[in-house]
Input
Amino acid sequence: TDLPWINWQDVESVLDIGCGYGRLLDFLTFRKSYKGEYWGIDIMLDFVEKAIRTYASRSPEPKAQFIVGDFLEQTFEKNRFDVVISIGGLGVNCDYPSPFGEKSIEYAQRLISKIVSLSGTAISLYFPNVDNIDVAKRKPRMAYYQTSEIEAMLLDACGKRCKEMTFVSYPDKNNVKTIALVKLSKDNGRSLF
Output
């Protein structure tokens, strides 16, 4: 989520997919001095209600909006957000109760394609890494991906806009959570790095 090449004071808008309670907003505000627009979306009503209660009493900077709903069903204009972050979106096994399979891959492709279309300059995308978890420890409701699968989906969606892509497992190289950090060229020429 850090996206170390970005000057957060120049970022005007962030979309947080699977925002939960909106805790990323605190990280951006207090650790990165972010003052732009923040949009959080989550399918869980309880999470969004708590986020709204938590941030309603705060100062207007950054401006925060929370949406309850399925990200794939939302309509935003292309390149609407400088940065798009998805922490939990790719963990869903759409094939459940069957093992992870074709439906999950199709979902991941749609999710990544939409994320890329909405992001102007950068993407931070968490995914459960199949190479970093023992078969016996895998949860049936979770989808697990190889880094090469996510890389191929991102490259397919980004095309020539992809300037740089890095994969980092968190908190260390053996952890199941892996982050894809993607630097994009922006259509309007504005740069945040």
